[in-house]
Amino acid sequence: MTALPPQPLSPLDGRYRSAVLGLGDHLSEAGLNRARVQVEVEWLIYLTSHGMFGSSPLTDQQVRSLRALVDDFGQPEIDRLAELESTTKHDVKAVEYLVRERLHALGLDHIAELTHFAATSEDINNLSYALTVSAAINEVWLPKFRGVIGELRAQALQYRDDAMLARTHGQPATPTTMGKELAVFVHRLERLRTQIQRTEYLGKFSGATGTFAAHVVADPSADWPRVSQEFVGSLGLTWNPLTTQIESHDWQAELYSAISHANRILHNLCTDIWTYISLGYFRQVPEPGATGSSTMPHKVNPIRFENAEANLELSSAVLDSLAATLVTSRLQRDLTDSTTQRNIGVGLGHSLLALDNIERGLGQIALDRELLAADLDANWEVLAEAIQTVIRAEVTAGRSTISDPYALLKELTRGKRVDHAGLVEFVNGLDIGQAAKNRLLELTPATYVGLASRLVDEL
């Protein structure tokens, strides 16, 4: 059998590439290397701008030319780094050499030794990951997450008054509205959105074991913790003052746990929407030309929500693993995080793909109000809760002598179908005040929704 041409192993880089393309700009190997170049360049600019070790500030043009290595980072730089790493066998050292080559081209060999000065690879890596993950979350993942919440919010408002039979334990139960049920998910997801948006992206820059040892030997007079804090802050990150060789990754564990939590809420949304479609509450709007089943022409399958379910599970599996393992490093440093962090894009990619499917799926469903109304009208027994609660209130107020309201309604309705006429007859025979009786006689399953609409409005 002839071997295939080189193919992407992950579906995120193959079949689903268009849905997750934005993440690759930040969380690919090239994206990481661009961030590494940025950190190395900015450290050079910081050192020279402060005249460290007798250096002089670079001119504005020199600064622009150095930063162009980041701004114009593309295939030539990607290829050159691969070439350098084939010799160095070390990814960060290859980045250092690339920066040194740019310094040579600019006639700045006299400051070449300030490249990667007093830095361990993890000083560069942790800042680079913080920069790339921050950009991926804020520029790619969060906008799509907000888009899903926005669509849910719009539908919650659209369906705020559409009463439907609730199904606690899968059985007919006290009615609600479709809008209120969707609003529950909006409220849950908004809490997670707030948490994720408040993420602190931490960074350290303190040397091989976090002690500034090399820094102090090079210049005992400098306030190196202040220098480190200023530099990390200049990158838009939050300084972590106390670490081993690595930044402790606690912020990453917190972030990935929060996104995994959001994934599980979205998974719950998918299973509920799937069930509403199965019940007929939602009708799916067929896409022109699309095939639902290869053998059953009538079918329109809820594939957007099923696809999302699977990808949310994959995402949480990866993100949970990252959150569990990244917080542990043997003594001052081991290399397990080097491999695991390269899978951040995989975890976020499956989540992003799921969000894309959910957003598209929500745009392809429509509420069947006639079916909702028919379902409610076929289940008048759900008013048993309302009737026995009113009787209890009447007994407490001294307007009824009924001894056990719950047992009375249980005898009437449990395991039985009760129609409108039967309930009217039953209510008319109750020993309760006329005002309470009138309220119950006016009640229908479709109007027994409490404050559902108001709850949506308050959201």
UniProtKB/TrEMBL annotation:
Keywords: Lyase, Purine biosynthesis. This is Adenylosuccinate lyase. It is an enzyme of class 4 (lyase). Residues 58-308 form the Fumarate lyase N-terminal domain. Pfam families: ASL_C, Lyase_1. Residues 329-449 form the Adenylosuccinate lyase PurB C-terminal domain. PANTHER family: ADENYLOSUCCINATE LYASE. NCBIfam families: PRK09285.1. One of its GO terms (molecular function) is lyase activity. PROSITE patterns: FUMARATE_LYASES (PS00163). Catalyzes two reactions in de novo purine nucleotide biosynthesis. Catalyzes the breakdown of 5-aminoimidazole- (N-succinylocarboxamide) ribotide (SAICAR or 2-[5-amino-1-(5-phospho-beta-D-ribosyl)imidazole-4-carboxamido]succinate) to 5-aminoimidazole-4-carboxamide ribotide (AICAR or 5-amino-1-(5-phospho-beta-D-ribosyl)imidazole-4-carboxamide) and fumarate, and of adenylosuccinate (ADS or N(6)-(1,2-dicarboxyethyl)-AMP) to adenosine monophosphate (AMP) and fumarate. Pathway: Purine metabolism; AMP biosynthesis via de novo pathway; AMP from IMP: step 2/2; Purine metabolism; IMP biosynthesis via de novo pathway; 5-amino-1-(5-phospho-D-ribosyl)imidazole-4-carboxamide from 5-amino-1-(5-phospho-D-ribosyl)imidazole-4-carboxylate: step 2/2. Its EC number is 4.3.2.2. CDD domains: PurB (cd01598).
